[in-house]
Amino acid sequence: MNRYVLHYAPDNASLIVRLALDHMGRPFETRLVNRATGEQGSPAYRGLNPHGLIPVLETPQGPIFETGAILLWLADTHGGMAPAPDHPDRAAFLKWLFFVSNTLHPALRMTFYPEKYAGPDPAHQAALRQTMQMALASHLAQLDRLAASGPAWLDPQTPGILHFYLACCLRWCALYPLAADRSWFRLAQTAHLHNLCLMLETLPCTRAAQAAEGLGPTPFTAPQLATPPEGSAT
String of b and e for 30-64 (b: at least 16 CB within 10 Å)? Predict the structure, then answer.
């Protein structure tokens, strides 16, 4: 029996956790959360995550939700993939991990699902989306400057949990929402983040995720909509 169970949907935030688990070499099994039928809102799933969001990772210590919490728990439990709690770089790493988890990722959600935050008025939704896109452009520029400054925990040659979180967020910037103008985003404008994505595309864990979730040949640098063997990305 595998130690971990990842409740996932293709090309959702669970992809970040899948990549990290696989790169760590930790055995896990996956259980599809069928978004097409709204399974994430079912009583059984809400028993694992009362907020009805994906992912959940079942562990010997119980189910964990929130992507950033899962990643940090894995890094601290197994070592590597992030500075250790007593490392001098820990504080700097944590502030940027939580920036991605608490600022960048929520801005993406508001861009993808403005109706959940701005209500049913299309004008309000469009205004929120435009505001969030401007914020995202600024956030990504800050993260590119961070990558350019060369912290060891963001070195492209030593992938960690923040690498995978960033790469997936960059993928989604290029793909979603399906019907919206995405001309605000060009990965090439953030050269250091682009380089990070190029490196991650060479990893075995990325190739495994490509096969498992139908991500296409260049999932981070020139992403295509997922064509998963099971489930739905949206």
Answer: beebebeeebbeeeebeebbeeebbbbbbbeeeeb
